[in-house]
Amino acid sequence: MPGKLYICATPIGNLRDITYRVIDTLKEADLIAAEDTRHSMKLMSHFDIHTPLTSYHEHNRIEKAEQLVDKMLGGINIALVTDAGTPAVSDPGEELVRQAVRAGIEVVSLPGACACITALTMSGLSTRRFAFEAFLPQTKKERRKIIEELKTETRTIVMYEAPHRLLSTLRELGAELGDRVITICREMTKKHEENIYTTISRAIDMYAECEPKGEYVLVVEGLKKEDIEDMNRKKYGALSVKEHMDMYISEGIGTKEAMKLVAKDRGVPKREIYNTLLKE
What we know:
Elements: E1 4-8, H1 20-28, E2 31-34, H2 37-46, E3 53-55, H3 61-73, E4 78-81, H4 93-102, E5 106-110, H5 115-121, E6 130-135, H6 140-150, E7 156-161, H7 166-177, E8 181-186, E9 194-199, H8 200-209, E10 216-220, H9 225-236, H10 241-249, H11 255-266, H12 270-279
Parallel strand pairs: 1-4, 1-5, 2-3, 2-4, 6-7
Antiparallel strand pairs: 7-10, 8-9, 8-10
């Protein structure tokens, strides 16, 4: 019988945010795959867990995943942990889970702390739909592309950021997204936890004056419906109604459907488009 892979969420700060189920699983597993064994040893020591640890991180994620899958196929049960939070979320554990699933190994996820969800729920922004971006790419080209895509994102946006890049990220977001409402969560569940409900411009002014410290989660307001309508009005305002209609008809869209699209773009009733066309 093959073994199982257990995804074990660990605390993101406060050690009491670990579940009994995770503690029991870590004690009963044959092996624990940890992002940083030295860091995880502190957690294991605190909860009197003596299961052997093996290193599994970004730099060995593919080859080591293959080795761990072989062990599980041989009957070994492995618990996967990250430095903090839920493994496989913006984490090299994603690769191990992918390989385990493809090998037919049963994967069991033990829920617990997750910085993304923790920040979202106390942001004061819409939680019904959200886009999780984790850490933005470090290369300028990829970073710029992602931020440009976020410009028209209507869902609440959640991302992680390190202190030394926080101010530059806020400036980039402000330049592309405009001055949106933002909640900045710092050092969540830890002694110096801080949640700042503000706007991007105010946050830029604040961090230009004081050095950011700790780990951050940014929760940014999505683009509002009225902002989209205003953008469309500006975009299509230079076109006459007929030119606007011709744009869609040239794409093979029927007249009735084109009228609906033109009305939606301009934020007016379809009847108004119909009457304008009659006059023209």
